[in-house]
Each structure stands twice: as C-alpha cells, then as structure tokens.
C-alpha cells in the first residue's frame, strides 16, 4: 500500500474519532458546568494530542518525498490547535442574579433603576411581599415586612412600653396591662430635678411614644407619706410635669401628654418601712383616653 494511502486512512480514522470526542464534549458541557465532570478523552489536551496525530498524518501523507518531515510537523501543529479548540469547554459562565436576596421575582413587579423590586420603606422586604408597608426606618421586621412583636400582644416592640407581657394578657395601646411604673426614673433629693440615669430611661420611653403618634399618655406622680399632704401633692405634680417636659424635649408632642400629681393618695406599699416608702415614690405612665 502506498504511503499516501496509508496516511490518509489513518488520518480519516482519527478525524472520525476526534469528531466523536468533540461532539461528546459539547453535549457534556451543555449538561454540566464543571469541566471535572467530563470524560478523560474529552479533555482539550487529549483532543489536542489526537488532533496533532491527525494533522501530522495528513501532512505526511500529502507531502512530497523531499518535505515529508516539515509537512508532518506543520500538520501536527495545526491539528493539535484545532483539536484543542474542538474540545474546549464552551459552557457559559453562570450569570449571578441581579437581586439575589429577593429570589424569583414575579412578572409585572415594579422595579428600581437596577432592576430590583421596589422596597419603599427600606426594611429589606420588597413591596410586593410587604404586608406592613411604611415601617419606620431602622425597625426590625419579620419575613412579611412587619415589625417584630416579641410578646405577641399586638403592639410591636418599637412601640411597646411593656415588652414582656405574659401571653394572653389584654393590653392597652402602650402594650401594657395597666399603668406602668417608670423604673429608675428618680429625682434629686426633695426636688423635681431628674437624675441623669432617669433621663437615659426616659429617652427610650420617648422613642417609643414618638413611634406611637396616635396614643395620648397620662404621667402620674406619687410620693410617700412623709411631709404634709399639700407639700406632697405639689411635689408629685412638679415631678410629673418634669417628666412630661423632658419627653417633650425628646419629640413627644405636649398635647399628647397630661401631668397629674397624686401625692401620697395612692400608695402601693406600706409607708412604715423604707422599702415601702421607696416604692411609693414613683412615676407611672398610663394611656390617656
């Protein structure tokens, strides 16, 4: 058999084999994005080697006797390059979703300039899923976009003056079963001057009241029984007014508050002991209907 015929037969057989590899590689890349999942014979290096053999065979077979070596070398180089290209992984790079935190977005949903669903109140829950639109900035919400209500009393945490109400207890608009004693709201001795610690406590009270604009409150001052009735009445009134004035300075509208001094009229403990007198010297917050 002549040299040219033998080379062409080998080359033809290899071409058929390489075509099969390339075809299999193309199908595999369409089914899997990971090149490690491809068969060994689909690797570009293997296809390049096969292509080199094909090209070399064809180059040798089609060259004259004087340039067999250069023809084979040229054919091998060209074949290796073509074989590698045929088996290259053409799987497209996965495109990251533009708004991954929103998941699958239904058709027709209003989007912003970046193509993400609108979130008008900025709580991280898009408008089309938000069951509580208009949540104030910074308020923590659940998956439905509604403010958290840790004690499930119907008053969200950011408005709740009594955040740990037992389950099933009926509460008012402040989230409290009854009037609430403002713990640690104390005054300088024999005056209506708030202590610095009392001001810190009232800052939190004011924040929740500002977030609850439809509620009016009664601020009620109480004293122990030491001193005259009239003196205690006046002192409790001044202390209640001092609390109201401080809350107003923190943004609570003055017309939403009333200050009432009860003096020693409504004790909650015995005035015969220091502990009892301490409990009686208090300021309470209640809903004002």
Compact description:
It contains six helices and four strands. It is 38% helix and 7% strand.
Report the count of strand segments.
Answer: 4
- Specify the CATH homologous superfamily of the domain at 180-287: OmpA-like domain
Q: Outline the biggest β-sheet.
A: 4 strands, mixed
Q: Please compute the radius of gyration using only Cα atoms.
A: 41 Å
Share of residues in helices: 25-40%
Q: Can you give the mean pLDDT?
A: 82
Q: Tally the helices: what do you get?
A: 6
Low-confidence stretches: 29-35
Q: Can you identify the CATH class of the domain at 180-287?
A: Alpha Beta
Helix and strand element order: HHHEHEHEHE
Beta-strand proportion: 5-15%
Tell the overall outline: rod-shaped
Briefly note the CATH topology name of the domain at 180-287: 60s Ribosomal Protein L30, Chain: A
End-to-end separation in angstroms reads 113 Å
- By helix and strand content, what is the structural category? alpha+beta
Q: At CATH's second level, what is the architecture of the domain at 180-287?
A: 2-Layer Sandwich
* Strand line-up across the major sheet: 1-4-2-3
Biased composition (Basic and acidic residues): 274-289
InterPro entries: Bact_OuterMem_StrucFunc, OMP_bac, OmpA-like, OMPA-like_CS, OmpA-like_sf, Thrombospondin_3-like_rpt, TSP_type-3_rpt
Organism: Vreelandella titanicae
Protein name: OmpA family protein
Q: Could you characterize what this model shows?
A:
The chain has 289 residues and is α+β, with helices and mostly antiparallel strands. Among the domains are: 3-86; 180-287, 60s Ribosomal Protein L30, Chain: A (2-Layer Sandwich), CATH 3.30.1330. It is built from six helices and four strands; from the N terminus they run αααβαβαβαβ. The chain has a four-stranded mixed sheet with strand order 1-4-2-3. The protein is rod-shaped. The N and C termini lie far apart (113 Å). 30% of the residues are buried. Mean pLDDT is 82; it is low at 29-35.
